Amino acid sequence: MTNAATTLRLMDTHAHFDAFVEEGSVAEIVRRAREAHVLRAIAIGGTPDANTRALQVAAAFPDVLRATIGLDRDEIGKPVDVVLLQQQMRHTQVVAVGETGLDYHYGPATRSEQCALFSQMLELAAETRLPVVVHTREADDDTFALLREYVNRPGVDAARPGVLHCFTGTEVFAHRLLDLGFFISFSGIVTFKNGEPLRAVARTIPADRLLFETDAPYLAPAPNRGKRNEPAWVAHVAAALATERGVPLQEMAEQVWENASRLFAWRE
Ligand SMILES: [Zn+2]
Question: 3.40.50.720, 3.40.630.30, 3.40.190.10, 3.20.20.140: which CATH number matches 10-263?
Answer without folding.
Answer: 3.20.20.140
